[in-house]
Amino acid sequence: MKVLVIGATGNVGSVVVGELLKRGAEVRALIRKHDADHKLPASLEVAIGDLLDPVSIEEAMKGVDKLFLLNAVTADELTQALITFCLAKRMKLKHMTYLSVFKVEQFRDVPHFASKLAVESALREFGVPHTILRPGYYIQNDATLKDVLTGPGIYPIPLGTAGIAAVDIRDIAEAAAISLTEDGHDGQTYDLVGPALISGPGNAEVWGKLLRKEIKYTGHNFDQWEQTMRGKMPAWMAFDLRMMFQGYFDRGFASTETEVAQITKLFGRAPRSYQDFAAETTKLWNA
Fold first, then answer.
1. Do the beta carbons of residue 69 and residue 81 sit within 8 Å?
2. What is the pLDDT of residues 29-75, one digit of tens each?
3. What is the C-alpha separation between 269 and 203, in angstroms, rounded?
4. Has this prediction a pTM greater than 0.90?
5. Axis crossing angle, helix 235-251 with helix 222-229, rounded to the nearest 10
6. Among 46, 116, 199, 284, whose CB has the most other CB atoms within 10 angstroms?
7. Partners of 164 in the beta sheet?
């Protein structure tokens, strides 16, 4: 069995590749150019292509049985995803695992959520064998906060105070590999969440204990946060992510005990926690 992994050089996709290889699957990784393959095992089969170039995607799918599709947050995310979906359908791939997002149907006003909801609908409507993974907030996003946590001592992500669902990307990768290498997952949708909710003040407290200093949550002024992010990313992306975080705050993004129990059953163990991630990350920073 050979799996084409789209998004294979990213933080999630590279871990998916590793999980598939551990399970004995053959893997072909789609990359945009040769100098991007430094994150991949040297022995891995590589295809060069672009999600806006159907010819290159069709070529990458030749001889492949299954597909893992992870779309980056881009202005043309839906176009990229539907080109890939349509080619997978035309070439009659045996299975497609699609990375969507938790509670996607409740955030139709968030551009990248709306794109993922449209792809989910296409998968179901056209009968493509599939599994949908719906992860919460990526815990590993916070690995980028070293400078602000260890320096001025602030936790700047506007997660709010009520608590939201979050997931370790290693659990996303494991769920993807299970769905692609084992039977019984066709037509299933899995909510990927951690064992407990996280919040802005809660995360600040976790880091404060680990770093042995006061960490302040900077709050959830979404206008100010969006303005700051415009200096670090395109304005459309800052707006998209602002709408996401504000949606968490206004509508909630919390998982339930039932959802935690379901993912525990899938793994045969409890999902990884934010506290464990933070402790591991602190050790790496100290090293």
1. yes
2. 999 887 655 667 877 899 999 999 999 999 999 999 999 999 999 99
3. 24
4. yes
5. 150
6. 116
7. 198, 253
Contacts of 179 (CB under 8 A, 6+ apart): 95, 97, 131, 133, 185, 188, 190
Q: Which two tokens stand for residue 73?
A: 């947050």
Burial letters 139-178, b for 16+ CB under 10 A, else e: bbebbebeeebeeeebbbbbbbeebbbbbbbbbbbbbbbb
Describe the chain by its helix, strand, coil percentages, rounded to 5. Answer: 50, 15, 35
Query: Residue 46 is encoded by which pair of tokens?
Result: 């590589």
Can you say how many angstroms the Cα of residue 219 is from the centroid of all Cα atoms in its chain? 24
The residues pairing with 192 across neighbouring beta strands, listed in sequence order, are: 135
The helix (run of H) or strand (run of E) holding residue 122 is helix 111-125
Res. 76 pLDDT band, cuts 50 70 90: very high
Residue 274 has pLDDT above 60, yes or no: yes
Residue 272's nearest CA partner among 190, 195, 199 is: 195
Specify the DSSP element, H or E, that contains 244: helix 235-251
d(CA 142, CA 140): 5
User: What is the secondary structure of 53-105 as a DSSP string?
Assistant: -HHHHHHHHTT--EEEE---S-TTHHHHHHHHHHHHHHTT-SEEEEE--TTGG
Separation CA 185–CA 225 (nearest Å)? 39
84-105, pLDDT tens digit by residue?
Answer: 999 999 999 999 999 999 999 9
C-alpha dihedral, 196 to 199 to 204 to 207, nearest 10°? 30
Phi first, then psi: give them for residue 253, nearest 5 degrees: -145, 35
For the cut 80, the answer to whether the pLDDT of residue 228 exceeds it is yes
- Rounded to whole angstroms, what are the CA distances from 209 to 111, 149, 158, 204? 36, 12, 20, 9
